[in-house]
Predict the structure.
Amino acid sequence: MALLETRGLARRFGGIQAVRDASLAVEAGEIFAIIGPNGAGKTTLFNLVSRVYPADAGQILLAGEDITRIAPHRVAALGVARTFQNIELFERSTVLDNLLVGRHCRGRAAPLAELLFTRANRRAEVAHRDKVERIIELLELQAHRDTSVGALAYGVRKVVEIGRALAAEPRLLLLDEPSSGLNAEETEDLSFWIRDIRDDFGITVVMIEHDMRLVDLVSDRVLAMDRGAVLAVGAPAAIMADARVVEAYLGG
Ligand SMILES: Nc1ncnc2c1ncn2[C@@H]1O[C@H](COP(=O)(O)OP(=O)(O)O)[C@@H](O)[C@H]1O
Ligand SMILES: [Mg+2]
């Protein structure tokens, strides 16, 4: 069974059919890339899956469970985390605090228990910190842990955002253009981290990405979109050589 499946998803904004009849299936453990020219509907597809916008038509299934109409906050609780095309973090908080905030959807003790600071509570807090430390280590953020996010270089902030998403311990991680604004060295680091996220944490990754080298390096399969529709799905080399995909990029 696919971890994420969409069937005939559609969403219109005014006169624009941003996503049309989009069906896809991502297997557990895959690194799955979504490519396509600007305006193809890639981010809208993420927004539909993470329930930022309701779909006009179609279905979204997570491990076989229909999540098409669940409340947006429940998507995170069911194990879907994402990053945004424009970084969304608490700029004035430290890296460590941003990652700890990322764990809040994991469910916390009741407010009264929290006040009492019970042993169970303390244990939960320690567990939260352990998880966050593993993420800091994986993403090599040790040097920045106590720095305010607003004071960090753009490339580091992007990595912190991935860390914040990981802190929620998702089954499925949606990355929207993770390499945009990164230099060549940072992009190479990213390629290792994406594979580590899948291999060490067992998280399925779906990433929207423009850098074809990165797509080719890390993806098991690639889906190409154009004008809201799925053009083709397949192995990276096959998709990049696909005449319809090449034409979509030339046309855009
Ligand atoms: N909230 C919105 N309101 C109006 N139009 C939108 C909105 N979100 C996306 N669109 C439009 O939908 C189309 C697809 O956008 P998007 O999904 O962001 O594409 P991509 O991520 O592939 O570049 C574009 O024409 C865009 O302008
Ligand atoms: Mg986009």
Remarks:
- The chain has two domains: 1-79+170-252, 95-168.
- The mean pLDDT is 92.
